[in-house]
Amino acid sequence: MSPSLAWLTLVIAGALDVGWAISMKYAEGYTRLGWSVASLVLLAAFVFLLGRALKVLEVGVAYSVWTGIYSVWTGIGAAGTFLMGVVLFGETLSALKVAGIVLVLMGIAALKLA
């Protein structure tokens, strides 16, 4: 896998992370079978893709993509989940929240360029 494909894999995994978070909301504490199964499948898929990306990308950057507050992975998941929360669940949208997401995304860009 090329580095470009590894980054694409990481982005796809980030999208699956958003799907996982949304499916957990719909699963209502894992009391709804269909959504619970979807949640677990999405979880397995994004962890698998993260593992594939880690075979190519530097572990310090790729892992921070997945876990840190300043990370690419968290940025993708946070921004996507934030937007889906607004769209699907009517959660509030404020200038301060948007500014926070923008700062996270700026951190993503910095990590990608580093």
TrEMBL record:
Membrane topology term: Multi-pass membrane protein
UniProt keyword annotation of S-adenosyl-L-methionine present: no
Main localization, broad class: membrane
Pfam families assigned to the protein according to its UniProt record, in alphabetical order: Multi_Drug_Res
Spans through the membrane: 31-51, 63-89, 95-113
InterPro entries tied to this protein: EmrE-like, Small_drug/metabolite_transptr, Small_multidrug_res
Alphabetized UniProt keyword annotations: Cell membrane, Membrane, Transmembrane, Transmembrane helix, Transport
Gene3D superfamilies associated with the record: 1.10.3730.20
An example Gene Ontology CC term for this record: plasma membrane
UniProt superkingdom: Bacteria
Entry's Gene Ontology molecular function annotations: transmembrane transporter activity
Localisation: Cell membrane
Family: Belongs to the drug/metabolite transporter (DMT) superfamily. Small multidrug resistance (SMR) (TC 2.A.7.1) family. Gdx/SugE subfamily.
UniProt name for this protein: Guanidinium exporter
